[in-house]
């Protein structure tokens, strides 16, 4: 019994201890978003595979997203900047020459959220506005009923990359 308890505690300590504990952090934090750099280590069928020190697996960038954020001429070995939300979902990516261009926030209530996660329509103080939804942010729409008060985050291309339900 005591052996099992020791093994259980050892397993808990292993999984709870943060990776890189004791090392200085080089990440940038902005409103529950974390920014860090990675290196493109492979390109296959237009997909960019980004290796970072922050994850065990490579992060992937679709050809559509790469084109939209200006990485259409990316090469293996190029450094890119990534931004993830508090759930570790990628919010934005950019070349090393830009560190998260011009994001803006829009407050409103949901009029319509496309069930296929392509667009969202909000009622704002300036009237009704419709925005394209980034594929990585689309799954957040499924839990928002019409009329829900929200704040959406738009990237430099006016595409919704994150959404937060307001109270």
Q: How large is the count of helical segments?
A: 2
Radius of gyration computed on alpha carbons: 19 Å
The percent of residues in helical segments reads: 10-25%
β-strand amount: 35-45%
Count all strands and give the number: 11
Tell me about the biggest sheet?
6 strands, antiparallel
What labels would you give this structure?
5-stranded antiparallel beta sheet, 6-stranded antiparallel beta sheet, 2 helices, 167 residues, mainly beta, elongated, single chain
General description of the model:
This protein starts with a helix and ends with a strand. The strands form two sheets. Strands 1, 2, 3, 4, 5 and 6 form a six-stranded antiparallel beta sheet that branches. A five-stranded antiparallel beta sheet has the order 9-8-7-10-11, with no helix packed on it. It is built from two helices and eleven strands, in the order αββββαβββββββ. A hairpin with a 2-residue loop joins β8 (119-124) and β9 (127-132). Residues 1-30 have low confidence and may be disordered. Helix content is 13%, strand content 41%. It is mainly beta and 167 residues long.
What can be said about this structure in brief?
The protein is built from two helices and eleven strands. With 167 residues, the chain is mainly β.
List the helices and strands and how they pair.
Layout: H1 2-16, E1 28-30, E2 33-44, E3 47-51, E4 59-61, H2 63-68, E5 79-84, E6 90-95, E7 104-113, E8 119-124, E9 127-132, E10 149-154, E11 160-165
Antiparallel strand pairs: 1-2, 2-3, 2-5, 3-4, 5-6, 7-8, 7-10, 8-9, 10-11
């Amino acid at each position: 019994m005591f052996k099992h308890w020791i093994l259980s505690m050892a397993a808990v300590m292993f999984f709870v201890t943060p990776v890189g504990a004791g090392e200085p952090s080089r990440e940038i934090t902005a409103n529950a978003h974390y920014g860090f750099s990675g290196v493109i280590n492979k390109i296959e069928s237009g997909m960019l595979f980004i290796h970072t020190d922050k994850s065990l697996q490579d992060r992937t960038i679709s050809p559509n997203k790469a084109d939209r954020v200006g990485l259409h001429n990316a090469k293996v070995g190029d450094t890119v900047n990534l931004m993830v939300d508090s759930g570790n979902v990628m919010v934005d990516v950019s070349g090393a020459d830009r560190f998260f261009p011009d994001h803006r926030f829009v407050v409103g209530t949901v009029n319509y959220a496309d069930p296929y996660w392509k667009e969202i329509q909000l009622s704002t103080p300036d009237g009704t506005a419709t925005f394209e939804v980034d594929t990585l942010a689309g799954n957040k729409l499924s839990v928002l009923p019409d009329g829900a008060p929200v704040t959406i985050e738009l990237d430099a291309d006016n595409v919704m990359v994150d959404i937060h339900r307001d109270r």
